Give the backbone structure.
Amino acid sequence: MNEEPNKSFGADDQDKQSKPDEFTGATTAAEGVELTGSAADSGSSAGSTIGSSVAFPPSSASSNPFGAGASTVTDSTDEKPTTSSSITLQWLTYALWGWFVVAMIWLVGTVLSYFFDKSDSIVSDLTATVTYPLTAVVVLLIGAGVVDFLYTKRENMNKTGVEAAVKAGHLVLYILCAVGLLLSLIFFFVQTAIDGESPVNTATFVSTIVIGLVLYAVLIARVVFIRKFKRLPLLATGFFAVVTVVFLIAGIAGPIANSISTKQDRTIEAALPSLSNMISDYTDKNQKLPASLSDLTVDGTTDKNVKTALDKNLIEYKANSKAADTLYGSMATYYYQLCVDYKDAGKSIPITASPADQKSTGQAADVYSPYPSTYGHGSGHQCYNVEVDSYGSGSSSGSNLFDDYLKSGSSDTQDYTYN
């Protein structure tokens, strides 16, 4: 019964021997099957020998369609066709990630400035501007992440032609930006060593530069080492997302929360100088202080902060807090007080206990100033002592002072100072 299959298999062998050499591997595999079948009848030792011949076929790897040929097909499937859409996705991926890093550095600097520079005047601006880099970072992260996900499915590990040019162009920009950050850090330390003091807050500047360098390092690695680590796009996106969440929370808990809680303070700070000017105009025209703030005419369009402060009763007004001083004729100096409640202390100029220093802010109990200065105020209840000169006849220039002198008929020689 074993002879008949052997004859038919032998005929097949003759046919295969007559075919070109590329089928040698297949012929060898067929021989292995025949020998294995016969070895099953003759014993296990022969089966082991034939099994070894099947595992290591005598034909070369280049001529075996199940060896090198199969690996060549696998490699070719990793190469995706380069199309206009894939190049567009590549360009958008690199560009959006680049802009993301720029916006992230902006956000980092803004947030860190709030926490490290709390005593500086820049804080008042940060609470209003932090929303811009924060919004940009969130939008760019989502956009870059989505585009990168789509591009990863079409990305070639070995880039050639246009793909290589796009990669090289963006890579050069990333490296130049990173070098610029590194140089700025070096210049900062050199200038600090020369001048003996840093031009900006050291912790804010150094931390921002270091974080920026790390972000560019991750971005450069995502572009350069994608061939060795195919999961780099996903890991880079995850890293960027974590950094964004950290500074998003810090930005909301810091500058934005402060901006919301001190909104009333900013309204008062903006309203007080304008309100003082209105009181001065009223006093000069009427030669007396307004009995109450309701006597003033407030334009809600041009004096929005004043109107808001008065509508919400944020400012307490006390007329004639000190008796008026009559200088000559209709010329007199009037004194009044404006009191407010601040939720937070001012960050610009620290208040000292010296009345001379407090004279400019009008906050000393026994000192009056021509205007209320809101810089460096404390938290809680604060009062501003303000003085206003009235020259009569609706003029604050002192032009009627000499007329008053002539009307009096006085022949005394006096020196007058026109304010």
Notes: The longest helix spans residues 162-195. The CA atoms of residues 99 and 140 lie 7 Å apart. The first strand starts at residue 316 and ends at 328.
